[in-house]
C-alpha cells in the first residue's frame, strides 16, 4: 500500500492557502519529503526534486522580489570632458507601483540610491502598473529624490498603458497624467528631447525618448542639432531602442523594461523573454559603438523573481583612454 502524501489533503481542501500561511501544513510537507527521501532510489530522487523546487518557488515568492541589490559599474566614454570624469549616475527603473508592490519597499530603494550620493538620478519608466489610481502615489514617493545635476525620467510602456509591440492603449491619456505628476514633484520628464548638463565650460548631453512600443519614439527629433563632439547619454525604457540608432552617436544608453526576465531558472534560463529581447536581458552590453545598461528594475508585474534580484544601479562615467 502506498504511503499517503500531505498533498492529498491539499487537493481535497480547495481553501488550502499557500504553504507558509499555515505552519502545520508546511511542516507536514517537509516531513513527507524527508520520509520519502529515505525510501528506494527512485522515490528519493522524486522527493528531492519536489523539495528542491518547492524551496525555490517559496524563495522566489517570499524573498527575492523585495531583496534589493546595489550594482556598480564604470563605463568609458570617448571625448568625456574632465569635469564629468567620475560622474556618478543612479538609475532606478520599473517601479510598477500598485497594491502588489509595498510602498515601504519603494522607499527602501530610494534610500539606497540616495545613500550613494549620485551626481545625477535617472528613472527609466514603468512608474505605475496599471490605471490612474497610483499615479500620484508613485510621483509623491519618487519626488523625495534629489541630486546636484537633477532627477530625470522617461516613460515606459505601462505608463502608456501599452502591453505589447502592437501599441494598443487601454487608457489613452495615462502617460500625460504620469508625466504631469512627476513634473509637479520636480522630476524632469524627457519626451523625445535633450537637455545639456553643464559643469564649468564642459557639456554633456542627456537625451530621453518615448517608449518604443508607444509608437511615438522619435530619435530624430530627440537628437537633432546636437554637436557631434559632445558625449551623449540616452534614456530609453526599452533596450531594443539601441537597434534604432542607425549610426547616430550614443555613448551610453540606460534602459529597463525586461526585469531581467524576472526568472532565470536553472536549466531553463529566462523563459519569459523572447529570443530577441534575451540578448539584452540585464547588465552592461556593447552594441556597435554604444554601451547599453539594462536595469533589472525595482518592482514586478507578478510577485515572483528567481535568480534576478531587483536592483539600484550606479554607473560611473570614465574618460576613455
Would you write up a description of this structure?
The protein is an alpha/beta fold and 321 residues long. It folds into two domains: 6-62, no CATH class; 69-319, 4-Layer Sandwich (Purple Acid Phosphatase, chain A, domain 2), CATH 3.60.21.10. 25% of the residues lie in helices and 21% in strands. It has helices spanning 6-12, 23-37, 41-62, 103-115, 135-142, 174-184, 219-223; strands at 69-77, 88-92, 120-124, 151-154, 188-189, 193-199, 202-208, 232-235, 252-255, 283-287, 290-294, 311-319. The strands form two sheets. A six-stranded mixed beta sheet has the order 1-12-2-3-4-5. Strands 6-7-8-9-11-10 form a six-stranded mixed beta sheet. Helix 5 runs parallel beside helix 6. 39% of the residues are buried.
Task: Please provide a brief summary of the model.
This protein is α/β, with parallel strands linked by helices. The protein is built from 7 helices and 12 strands.
**Biggest pleated-sheet summary:** 6 strands, mixed
Average pLDDT, all residues: 88
What is the share of helical residues? 25-40%
CATH superfamily of the largest domain: Metallo-dependent phosphatases
Query: How many individual β-strands?
Result: 12
Amino acid at each position: 500500500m502506498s504511503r499517503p502524501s500531505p498533498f492529498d489533503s491539499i487537493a481535497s481542501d480547495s481553501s488550502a492557502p499557500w504553504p507558509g500561511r499555515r505552519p502545520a501544513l508546511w511542516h507536514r510537507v517537509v516531513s513527507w519529503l524527508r520520509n520519502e527521501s529515505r525510501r528506494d532510489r527512485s522515490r528519493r530522487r522524486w522527493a528531492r526534486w519536489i523539495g528542491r523546487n518547492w524551496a525555490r518557488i517559496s524563495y522566489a515568492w517570499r524573498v527575492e522580489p523585495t531583496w534589493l541589490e546595489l550594482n556598480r559599474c564604470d563605463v568609458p566614454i570617448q571625448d568625456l570632458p574632465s569635469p564629468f570624469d567620475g560622474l556618478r549616475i543612479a538609475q532606478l527603473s520599473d517601479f510598477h507601483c500598485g497594491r502588489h508592490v509595498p510602498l515601504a519597499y519603494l522607499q527602501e530603494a530610494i534610500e539606497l540610491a540616495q545613500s550613494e550620493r549620485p551626481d545625477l538620478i535617472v528613472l527609466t519608466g514603468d512608474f505605475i502598473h496599471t490605471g490612474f489610481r497610483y499615479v500620484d502615489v508613485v510621483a509623491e514617493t519618487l519626488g523625495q529624490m534629489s541630486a546636484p545635476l537633477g532627477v530625470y525620467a522617461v516613460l515606459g510602456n505601462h505608463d502608456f498603458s501599452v502591453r505589447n509591440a502592437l501599441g494598443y492603449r487601454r487608457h489613452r491619456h495615462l502617460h500625460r497624467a504620469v508625466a504631469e505628476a512627476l513634473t509637479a514633484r520636480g522630476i524632469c520628464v524627457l519626451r523625445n528631447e535633450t537637455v545639456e548638463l553643464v559643469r564649468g565650460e564642459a557639456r554633456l548631453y542627456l537625451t530621453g525618448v518615448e517608449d518604443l512600443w508607444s509608437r511615438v519614439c522619435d530619435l530624430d527629433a530627440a537628437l537633432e542639432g546636437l554637436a557631434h563632439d559632445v558625449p551623449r547619454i540616452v534614456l530609453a525604457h526599452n533596450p531594443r531602442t539601441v537597434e534604432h540608432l542607425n549610426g547616430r552617436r550614443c555613448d551610453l544608453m540606460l534602459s529597463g523594461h525586461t526585469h531581467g526576465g524576472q526568472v532565470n531558472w536553472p536549466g531553463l534560463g529566462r523563459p519569459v523573454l523572447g529570443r530577441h529581447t534575451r540578448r539584452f536581458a540585464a547588465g552592461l552590453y556593447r552594441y556597435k559603438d554604444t554601451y547599453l545598461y539594462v536595469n533589472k528594475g525595482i518592482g514586478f508585474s507578478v510577485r515572483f523573481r528567481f535568480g534576478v534580484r531587483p536592483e539600484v544601479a550606479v554607473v560611473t562615467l570614465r574618460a576613455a583612454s
